[in-house]
Amino acid sequence: MKRHRIYCDSSVIGGYFDPEFEMDSQRFIDAVKKGQIVMLVSEVVVEEILQAPEDVQNLLASIPTSSVERVPLSEEVIELRNAYIGAGILGAKWIDDATHVAAATVARADAIVSWNFAHIVRLDKMKAYNQVNLINGYGILTIISPREVHYDDT
């Protein structure tokens, strides 16, 4: 069975230790560690995790490299991110959130998972991101929380 390639923003990694999000974050990270999912991360995720508590940093470092795909912050990612901001989806203050969505889109991830319900996992934002994606020749990006990810327990 093909492993899903899912972009993971830093909220899911940090959520591993947050009582509100730990159950679903732990299920997601454990599936990545077992090789059931390929976790995509960009330099923005890595930079955000470097600012996080040590246990969060150690968690990211503990994930096998065979289960992680790095998404470069290419000119293509930057251009798409800027298109989101230009379309008014997010203000420049939230540039990193727009970068997460752009990186997932350009990498052709199967989905992006996030606990960011203000700027990413929100119906009006999802529609707007995907409208810009289609205008710019990309496909539809599935935007969900880790709770919606299916895990193969067999």
Tell me what you see in this structure:
The model has no long low-confidence stretch (mean pLDDT 96). The chain is an alpha/beta fold. Strands 3-2-1-4-5 form a five-stranded parallel beta sheet, sandwiched between helices. Strand 4, helix 7 (123-135) and strand 5 (143-144) form a beta-alpha-beta unit. The protein is built from seven helices and five strands. It has one domain: Rossmann fold (3-Layer(aba) Sandwich). The longest helix is centred in the last third of the chain and has 13 residues, at 123-135. Helix 5 packs across helix 6 (95-106).
Short description:
With 154 residues, the chain is α/β, with parallel strands linked by helices.
Give the class-level CATH name.
Answer: Alpha Beta
Radius of gyration: 15 Å
Assembly type: single chain
Which structural class should the secondary elements be placed in?
alpha/beta
- Helical fraction equals 40-55%
Q: Give the beta-strand count.
A: 5
Q: What are the segments in which pLDDT stays under 50 over at least 5 consecutive residues?
A: none
What is the first-to-last residue Cα distance?
11 Å
Using the alpha-carbon principal axes, give the shape: globular
Number of helices: 7
Q: Strand order within the widest sheet?
A: 3-2-1-4-5
User: What value does the average pLDDT take?
Assistant: 96
Features:
154 residues, five-stranded parallel β-sheet, alpha/beta, 5 strands, single chain, Rossmann fold
